[in-house]
Write a structure and sequence with these properties.
Largest sheet of chain B: none
Subcellular location (chain B): Cell membrane
Shape of chain A: globular
Number of domains of chain B: 2
CATH superfamily of the largest domain in chain B: MetI-like
CATH class of the largest domain in chain B: Mainly Alpha
Oligomer: heterodimer
Radius of gyration of chain B: 27 Å
Helix content of chain B: over 70%
Distance between the termini of chain B: 44 Å
Largest sheet of chain A: none
InterPro entries (chain B): MetI-like, MetI-like_sf, UgpAE/MalFG_permease
CATH topology of the largest domain in chain B: MetI-like fold
Pfam families (chain B): BPD_transp_1
Distance between the termini of chain A: 30 Å
Number of helices of chain B: 17
Number of strands of chain B: 0
CATH architecture of chain A: Orthogonal Bundle
Number of helices of chain A: 14
CATH topology of chain A: MetI-like fold
Largest interface: A-B, 107 and 108 residues
Membrane topology (chain B): Multi-pass membrane protein
Family (chain B): Belongs to the binding-protein-dependent transport system permease family.
Order of helices and strands of chain A: HHHHHHHHHHHHHH
Chain lengths: 302, 323
Amino acid sequence: MSSAVKESRSDKLFLVCNYIYLTIALVIVLYPLLYIVSASISDPKYVSSGEMWLIPKGITFDGYARVFENANIWIGYKNTIIYTVVGTIVNLIVTLPAAYALSRSDFVGRGFFMALFLVTMFFGGGLVPSYLLVKDLGMVNSMWALILPGAASIWNIIVSRTFFQSTIPKELQEAAHIDGCTNFRLFIRIVLPLSMPIIAVMALFYGVGHWNSYFSAMIYLNDSAKYPLQLFLRQILVLQEMAAQGGGAIDASSATAMNTKAEIAALVKYAVIIVATVPVIAIYPFLQRYFVQGVMIGSVKG
Amino acid sequence: MQPDGKSALSPDLSVNTIPNRKKNTLWRRMIRNWELYLFIAPAFLYFVIFHYGPMYGIQIAFKNFIPTLGVTGSPWVGFDHFVRFFNSYYFWDLLWNTLSISLYELAIGFPLPIILALAFNEVRDSFFKRTVQTVTYAPHFISVVVMSGMIITFLSPSSGMIVNLVEGLGFQAPQFLTDPAWFKTVYVLSGVWQSTGWGTIIYLAALSGVDPQLHEAAVVDGASRFKRILHINIPAIIPTITILLILNMGSILGVGFEKILLLQNPLNMGSSDVISTFVYRSGLVDAQYSFSTAVGLFNSVVNAILLIAVNQIARRTSENSLW
């Protein structure tokens, strides 16, 4: 449109302002991200003094070395991968068939089920009753406490249902039924293969959720061998326990030694942020259109 | 063509002469699609157990919960816990902090994705646009723990990036994390950084539905870009804005407590303690189960009332509402 119609002067000015605005937004979001990457491979003394502000200075990989030496990081990584994979599979098994059933107009009772599910969007039992329930079910300190209480999200069920409604033609289902195809085979053989985009979107939404969650692990797990990555990150980044670790040999009364220790702790923090976030951030640009698609499908209904 | 299908269909035609026909076909439709009930069973069980189960547990808000007696067996105490909460010296502080953080977040965080989406929508240059979009969406995927870690590191008094920046500009950097006066700003602005980009997607979806002919006609009539945004694009996203505003109002007492919990420290508690973090502390840390459930129930009831009220207002004043 911009090439077809000659822009007036005020429109050109407007466009220039718009580009400036977007560039500022870009810089504000991008700068902290680049800073962390640079800080994770820079000499910590330049980082804390502010001399390193964009380009890495005094390059060192000491931070990463210390992160990978830390056994907890490996334990956390392993647990997080297990919880993410198992959790996402459970999510898909609960979400997709239910969403498909709800998408069928000949499903008697779908209004009832939908209403039953929707109520939970606006009202819930709250933290303590949920905690007591999980405790009564004997799931404390087990992986299932992190997976089952979040086995489905009503939002994702609605998004999937909308997808099935808009992409699976009703005629296809009718034809399959006339041919004697059962609902079960129809779903497995015809509906699912046609629904790869929504399966990808759901797997990604749920997967990222599992990867990033810490709160249920914090309240339900007591055994640190079962901790997911985010709980170890919390110890390092928020409770700052790394700073106190492994410093036994250094004389605490020496001010410079204290400084070095603090600097190393800071270096480790930057490195650990990268190590924990890279898996998600690295795959995201390739899958961006799926994520975006998911939100868009949701908004059609929303 | 399978014989099973034929036999499943043929009774349909022959038995229809029974008087109670409507009920009968309904029953038959249920039988014919029996597998769909199997499909929905896991989700049904999930919602009944993990959502309606805790709702049954809410009754301990009106009881003195004793673990050995269980939820059902514990003695009733009526509204004692609510009275204790409303009369406590921290009640007004908690309410104020919760409300002010929510409203602050709404005032800053709600309009920004709309403005950014309108700005994206004016750009045709696809590489630049895609770059800005990809970058601004990215922080959405940072976990709340890493986000809090970044905030703490950047605001660290001796060496943090933002502290260095402020001091580099010649100002005295405030104690961002320990001064209660700064907590809410830190919380809100870091949230804006993290979620503004992602928040544009839903508006961009609405904007993509605008009929290009409207714009063409407006151009012919001499409308500037700004005028077209004002009179075409903004009206087109008003329904989306209304719905999101209603949803936001409904969670006004439900501020994202996971991040607050991580950023809380004894020094900023005066402005960082909100109802949900209080529920966590009194319930799970101090094990005052009944009291904490009562506080949580107060919170959810206020949320539900707000949601219904705002939805009613929206329905009266415009045609956009949730139901």
